[in-house]
UniProtKB/TrEMBL annotation:
It comes from Fermentimicrarchaeum limneticum. This is Histone deacetylase. Residues 19-297 form the Histone deacetylase domain. Signal peptide: none annotated. GO terms for biological process: epigenetic regulation of gene expression.
Amino acid sequence: MKIVYSERFLEHETGEGYPESPQRLVAILKYIKENKLPVSFDKPEDVKEKDLYVIHDEAYIERLKFLSDTQQGGGDNPFSMNTFKIAKLAAGAALKAARNSKEDFSFALVRPPGHHAGKDFFGGFCYLNNIAFAVASLLESELKRAMIVDIDQHHGNGTQDIFYEDNRVFYLSFHQDPGTCFPWNSGFEKENNGHIKNVVVQPETTDAEYLKIFEENFSKYVAEFKPQLIGVSVGFDTFYKDHSCGNAIDIRDSATYNKIGSMIRKQAEELEARTFAVLEGGYCLDTLGQNFWSFCSAFL
């Protein structure tokens, strides 16, 4: 299994006490090293600014560059001098992982995350939509149908925005009721259409209940849509010890992530579909490595 990573991802500066910190990746890398896990590392693919226009408006890209150059912004999305460059590198890592999936499952270990970045907006720690960029790029060149499965605590409002009118992509998101958490105004079932499926998971849902909800929906829609590629937006902020962003879906057993991954792998193999994943949320440093490997080990 290949992990696409660059040490430059640690350079995105967010400030002391900020949950989306370089220590997230450090914790995962430490777990990999200490447990001598069977992975190899790969470098991100080079991305030009014009390549990003496949999902983002040109004016939006110029705005990101300006905010980064002038170090403006705050709240969930601080900007430092290299924020845009590092975000672009993260998008390139997602694309490399998607390309690697021709041979085997690949994971883009990146920051900043991406699924809250839409065509012309940023938010929720995200600037460029990494997984959307990877999927859209391959649809331009070698694929006809792709599915994005999002298991982050929060709805990927940016991913939905980008693909809402693009029926080449099936977006299937499992997330906490957006009436109770970020992004507040997106991710409701009333927004669903033929290729957008928001599955709202209520607070206090148990591991067994979550897995049942996941299996019923994923098996149904992947069988109907028959994607050639399955990209997974993986967030570990659903874990019960992860309270940095107000989670209420309390997955108690790390093995639950392995079971989710196993379902994805099984269906992908039956369809002969490629699979890759991109890191989104997950802020509890003590459990990130274990949860990361629980998910990834399903694809060995």
